[in-house]
Design a protein that fits this description.
254 residues, 7 helices, alpha/beta, 8-stranded mixed barrel, TIM Barrel
């Protein structure tokens, strides 16, 4: 009978490396499925959270805002600008349609950390010039700090604060949009008295310790008047609280 061959040390290392690689593939596959395949949404009790809205940009195409209103949505945030020069082509059309439908309207700017706060504030203010809003102006801070960053975290946060200072100096109330991870890592300490619009696919009932007033609960909503999927948001309060909130939003004298 032949002698049983015992694996050598290099064989053990090889198998450990293969197992490690397989584990990484499984983890990566799970992340990609979560990020791009599995639904990004949470069901919310509309009796408990009766005030809901959508956020839109040119990517949502032509929108019938009267149908949106009739589908029991009360507000909309509309993309106005991004970075130093970009302005959303559909902003004026969306603003006009939402206003005519009687929805409460806000505008948002997608922040690019490689541009100064002054440059981005000027772009945002130029895009919304002459328009009235019911909701605060939003700075959308959802991008990844490591994705093409040309400035460090400290510089980027300083630029966000500069933009906030300029907008509030013009008389506008400012709201910050970010996800739960971004809030905890980057924006928690800088938020101050500014409103928070939080993206989280967790029931608002499970986030009672968070200070947000608006929660984005879905990227895959179906709403009358909008072709395809659209972001869904809820206000974390009652109708009477919503009305008081609207009454207290600061606006400049146009």
């Amino acid at each position: 009978m032949g002698r049983r061959q015992v694996p050598t040390r290099p064989d053990y290392i090889k198998w450990l490396l293969l197992l490690g690689a397989a584990a990484l593939v499984v983890l990566l596959g799970g992340y990609l499925a979560w990020r791009y395949i599995l639904p990004h949404s949470v069901n919310v009790d509309r009796y408990r959270y009766p005030i809901a809205g959508i956020d839109v940009s040119k990517h949502n195409g032509d929108i019938d805002f009267e149908q949106v209103r009739d589908d029991d949505y009360q507000f909309v945030f509309i993309k106005a600008s991004e970075g130093m020069t970009y302005r959303d082509d559909a902003f004026d059309r969306n603003y006009r349609g939402a206003r005519e439908a009687g929805l409460k309207v806000g505008a948002y700017h997608f922040f690019r950390k490689n541009r100064t706060g002054r440059e981005q504030a000027d772009n945002f203010l130029g895009a919304i010039q002459g328009k009235e809003f019911d909701l605060p102006l939003v700075i959308d801070l959802e991008d990844d700090w490591g994705n093409g960053a040309t400035v460090n975290r400290k510089q980027a946060l300083e630029r966000v604060m500069d933009m906030i200072e300029i907008l509030t100096g013009k008389g506008y109330q400012v709201m910050i949009y970010t996800n739960l991870d971004g809030y905890n890592k980057y924006y928690k300490d800088m938020l101050g008295d500014h409103d928070l619009w939080l993206c989280s696919f967790t029931s608002p009932d499970q986030l009672t310790s968070m200070p947000h007033c608006i929660q984005q609960i879905s990227h895959e909503g179906g709403v009358l008047g909008v072709k395809g999927k659209v972001d869904i948001n809820v206000y974390r309060g009652s109708k009477s609280e919503w009305n008081r909130y609207l009454d207290n939003v600061k606006h400049p004298d146009l």
